[in-house]
Amino acid sequence: PAAAAPITLPEASSLVQAARAVWAASGLVDAAQLALTQDVQLAIVDLPELGLGQAAGARILLDRDGAGHGWFVDATPTADEEFAAGGAGLLLARAGAAAEGRMDLLSVVVHELGHVMGLDHAAGGAMVEMLDVGQRLTAASLASIEPTVLPAGAAEVFDEQLGGFVDAGTAALLRRSGITAAPTAGGAAIDWSQGWSGGSGG
Fold first, then answer.
1. Rounded CA gap, 9 and 45, in Å?
2. Sequential pLDDT tens for the chain (202 residues)
3. Which of 1, 116, 145, 152 is the most exposed, having the fewest neighbouring CB atoms within 10 Å of its CB?
4. At what angle do helices 16-26 and 105-116 cross, to 10 degrees?
5. Cβ atoms within 10 Å, residue 192
6. Cα 72 to Cα 89, 137, 142, 157, distances in angstroms
């Protein structure tokens, strides 16, 4: 099969406001948390393995081709006409729709904005660690959990540009993407370096 077309920064940026609206409609976050997403910056990179997105401070890294599946970039993100109800607040791509067989970019941006607001991974909802092809997260599927706190002495670096702590692996990824991070002494801090993986259920 043909290689998935890479996403562009304007395409990704077009869905940020729609993703913020999903969180606002959920009622799970307050105005102060939403304000943290106001000036979020996106970068398109080649994330390792099945990575779809990764948040570090107010910057979100998105995989260039949706882990090889390709991205569904919704021109009408509030309509959901390409999807049907799938239970547990999830939507599933309709057969033959453009979203079928692709990773839903809106869902990934929703997930990563959750990390920007300090939310950790959860067993269900928008903060699950896995997203299948053709799935869309909705306000009804969102789940909130307390932010993760790193143990004292954990390996981490502080990036002044990002304004937050990231782990060594994320720092290396940021450097490869042209984003620098400065080392600092270890200590308890909110872990902003959260990744998300996609898969096809296999």
1. 10
2. 456 789 999 999 999 999 999 999 888 889 999 999 999 999 999 998 888 999 988 999 999 999 999 999 999 998 899 999 887 778 999 999 999 999 999 999 999 999 999 988 877 778 888 889 999 987 777 754 444 443 444 444 444 444 444 554 555 555 555 544 433 333 222 232 344 555 433 3
3. 1
4. 60
5. 25
6. 19, 13, 20, 34
- b/e map of 35-65 (b: 16 or more CB within 10 Å)? eebeebebbbbebeebbbbbbbbbbbbbbbb
Residue entry with tokens 């999903």: 22
**Which two tokens mark 199?**
């898969």
Distance CA 90, CA 139 (A): 9
Residue 24: exposure state from Cβ atoms within 10 A (0-12, 13-18, ≥19)? middle
